[in-house]
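chain below, 472 aa
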Amino acid sequence: MGFKYTEVESTIISYLEKGLLKPGDRLPSLRKLSVTLGVSLSTVNQAYLNLEKQGLIEARPRSGYYVLSYPNHQLDYPKSPQTDFTPRTFKRKDLILEVLNVLGNEQLLPLGIIAPHPSLLPLKELNRAMRSVLQENRAEILNYEKVEGNFLLRKQISFEYLDIIPSLNPEDMLITNGAMEALSLAVRTLTRPGDNVLIQSPTYFCFLQFLENYGLRAIEIPSNPKRGINPKDVREALDRFEVKACIFSANFNNPDGSLTTEEQKKEIVALLAQKEVPLIEDDVSGDIYFGVHRPKAFKTYDQKGLVVYCSSFSKTLCPGYRVGWILPGRFYKKVYELKATTSVSSTTLCQLALAEYFKNNSYTKNLKKLNKLIELQMKNILVAINKYFPKGTKATSPQGGSVLWLELPLQIDSILFFQKALELGISIVPGNIFSTQDRFKNFIRISCNGLWNKEVENGIARLGQLAYELIN
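prediction:
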């Protein structure tokens, strides 16, 4: 999973982005760069070959490698949405089902699905853990697990996340069937039909689907693509409306990739604590970060047990295992009751296998490799968008997560774009389904699975051509 040459590629691309290397410049020799970065000659050579395939550099006989091209400007960021705070219901069920229908379709280029490419996951280590559990022939693999989940797994998760949630205790946690069940349990625990729920806009369409299914009304506050959620907007909504709960994603929000600052997180948690308003936190993207340190969570600053924290390993380790977890805080008893009467417990075998994996492998080490690959693919996709898409296209350049949020020229309808892309064998997600207010009709979301190759580049090129056709 992951290779050192991708780190070399990232280094060269960062030089290009910063203008330290310009078209026509000679790159450092293989030997010089191998010494500078502390990697082998073959590693540098592989990185240069890949960059050459991408059309960024070229080899000149007996002269070395030279920068061939690189966009001389970065794409502008999409505009920050303006919302009117009016409580609304959500009716996008048919479109959401159409989007979800592409899951598992291997005939499509998966630019609409948020999941790492299987080749980048620690398959051997996970298989070894699974075999170990099966070979022990323990009768417990055939039995129901406890409602709250396997204790060893909860203990391992607690160890992994102590830096993010210092007070984390295995007894405070329940294992769920992915983060979706965790979020559903939280919404059902904290709300009743007709209640107002505060969400950021744009937001993950499944949150909006929850609100529709449970008869709730959404109050949208803007999510700034660069700065995330503004505490002033939270305060205004709390002052104007009776809010029963909030659903926020502070770390690399889906779909705009925004990161809410640590100071803003602290202030928002304090505001909600004053009003005794619970916060449902979706942190499934928090582990996918490109900086030195993982960002903290809202839960980090929770002193009153009002933050219900939800996460999973579906975006980083094993999507098919469907292992998630929830920290219900002061609402533990009610969440436990709902879990027990909904799914009883999560799959025993997958919990045991994942606990075995954590016992013998470094999740952090594998995560670091995966994050490097996702970051590299994201940069390459942005270069391709700049190259192939019409003038006026805007895109985010997030510090983590797995999504890019594109604002297309106004003439383009994202639903039509989505349908035409499917005809080309490419899945993307139309912006319309990320809000109740029809504010993202010319936006699309593109997902990054960490794999960059000619097929992906050709897919971006075809999408760019489609954009031109729809304009004309």
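The domain at 122-363 is CATH 3.40.640.10 (Aspartate Aminotransferase; domain 2). The chain has 15 helices and 16 strands.
thats it, cya
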